[in-house]
Each structure stands twice: as C-alpha cells, then as structure tokens.
Amino acid sequence: MKLHNTIMALAVSAAATFGPAYGQTAEGQPVAAAIERVATKLAGRIGFAAQEIGGDDVIAFNGDETFAMASTYKVAIATAIMDRVDRGELSLDQMVEITPDMMMIGDAALSDTFVHPGLQLSVANLMEIMITESDNTATDTLIGLAGGAAAVTENLRRLGITDFRVDRTTGEIIGEFYGLPGPATMKVATEAFKTNPELATIVSDRNLDFEADPRDHATPLAMLQLLLAIDSGTAMSAESRNFLIDIMSRTRTGAGRLKGLLPRGTPVAHKTGTIGGVANDVGYITLPDGRRFAIAVFTKSSESSEADRDRAIAEVARSLYDYFYVGQMAK
To answer: Where are the alpha helices (DSSP H) in 159-202?
Structure first.
C-alpha cells in the first residue's frame, strides 16, 4: 500500500539519520503525521502511541489528548484484579455467583446465553470473558471485586499513571449513553426500549456530549504506559502478567482493527473498545524477529462506518509494524 511504502521509506531514512535513536518521541514527527493523514479520513479524530518493548523510541500522534476509552478500560480493571490476586486478596479460582439482576446489555455473552438463575464463574473465567468477549456483566462483577471504579483509578496512580481515569461501571456508561433511568441492566434496558424503540438504534451514532464527558478517559500515552507497566512486571507479578497477556491473545472482537492489515498469523494480544463514534484497540504486536511493541489507538467523533473505523486502526497498526520492523533492519 502507498502509505505503508511511505512509512517504510521514513523508517529507513530515520534509521540512517539518527542511528540508534531513530523515531524519537515527538508529536507530529514525520512517520506519525503520515499515518494520521490517512487514518483521520476514515475515523474522525485519531490518537495513537506505540513503543517497542525494551526500547526507548515512542511514536505518538495526539498522544496527550484524552479519548473515551470504551471497553479498552477493561485492561485497567484486569490490572487491578491481578494486583489483588498478587496480594492474596483474591484468587483466580474463587467462585462468584452471577444473579439475573447483574446481567448487563451491550457486549453480553453471559446475558445472551444464561437466562436462568444458578450461574457461578471463577474469577479466572470472568477475566477471560471480560477480555475475549468484552462481556459487560463480567466486567461490572470484576469492578466490584476490585473495590469499585475509584480503586481501579487508585491502582493506576500507584503505578504513576495520571492521564487515565476509571469512574463508572459499564452499566453506568451505557445507561448514560442511551439516556436510561439507571445502569443498563437487562431489566432496565428492556423496559426502556419497549417505551422508546428508537433508543436501540443509537449505539453506533456519534455522541459529542458523551465524548466531552471527561469520565473514563485516557490519553494514548497513558494507555501505552499501562501496557508497558503490565509487560515489565511493574503492575503485577510475572505469573499474573503471563496470565493476562495470554487472555488478551485470545480476544475475539475487533478482527479488523489492530489485526486487520498485519501479515497472517502475526501474534496480537489486545483489547478493543466501541461505543457511538468511538472505536479503539490497544495491546501488543509481535514482529517477525520476535521483538514486540505495545500500541494504543483511540478514535472519536467519527461519522464513518464501523468498517472504516476499523480500517483506520488497522492502517495505524500496519504502518507502525512496518516502521519498527523495517527501521530495525535498516540500522
């Protein structure tokens, strides 16, 4: 693709010019600007940040701008849970009862499958379905086990991550997005949609008031900081890190986002997020030589199709894949 050829040329040029310091952190650097020019045509406003694991070079565009995280904030919830596991305050095999009144709409693998009382899941299985299926019932159950949204944010501050806040459950976020009279439980949503069927059609519509609300926002650089803290063992033990990243490698959502333009079989461990005009994807991508880089891509204010938003994220991921890989080979 033309953009990918441009990025590869920039990578070679940067490597030749700067030696080991190619791609130094700088908002608006040529490679980031080249990606942004293509991606914003597909998905409104975009921000991204990426860094090779163990490297010093950061590529970012709008890296300090806040974006609604949508379900990518579940990485922070998972981090808080694993911290409690490491402290001995929770165990992965601990069983948790899921009652019918806990069932949420949106990403709803549990509520779509289990319609009768009598469901129990381990913390490990709640983590699995929160990440791989982005299930909202599992997410809100885990927020409770983490000590609430404030406790998740407090854990981020403990890690030195400041431009990242978790304020609400997914039920509260979706409830406010739809204008429901409370958290988006199956019961509340069913009654609301009966009264106003048009509510059920707005999930993919841009909502600028929702995006302007500072709650549950992060910058791309802050999300990148969290991803690096997880991988380095700063945020959790090595065993917990391996458990979480292994789950992220099984994510089923967002096949057209970070993965969309990468070579077939490229290992990707990630978490997606979608609501209204927001489409995001964050995680880790492995290069052909075994090196990896962490990446966070956020979009907002998009009136384009979901396919175009996915393509924008895919363009960013593939271009940075080429940049890190080709730039290293050119040195």
So the answer is: 170-178, 186-195
β-bridge partners, 60? 49
The domain limits of the chain are 2-66+227-330, 73-210
Q: At 284, which helix (H) or strand (E)? A: strand 278-286
3-62 pLDDT tens trace: 555 444 444 344 333 222 223 344 336 777 778 777 777 878 899 999 999 998 899 999
- Close Cβ partners of 323 (under 8 Å, ≥ 6 residues apart): 7, 8, 10, 11, 23, 31, 59
Does the domain spanning 73-210 belong to CATH 3.50.50.60?
no
Q: What distance in Å separates the CA atoms of residue 319 and residue 43, rounded to the nearest whole number?
A: 16
pLDDT, one tens digit per residue, over 157-179 is 999 999 999 999 999 999 888 88
Fold assignment, 2-66+227-330: Beta-lactamase (3.40.710)
CB-neighbour burial class of residue 205 (10 A; exposed 0-12, middle 13-18, buried 19+): exposed
Q: Which residues pair with 167 in a beta bridge?
A: none
Q: Work out the end-to-end distance of the chain between its first and last CA atoms, rounded to an integer number of angstroms.
A: 23
SS3 63: coil
Same CATH topology for 2-66+227-330 and 73-210: the answer is: yes
pTM for the whole structure: 0.89
Q: How far apart are CA 102 and CA 84, in angstroms?
A: 22
- Main-chain dihedrals φ then ψ at residue 98, nearest 5 degrees: -110, 110
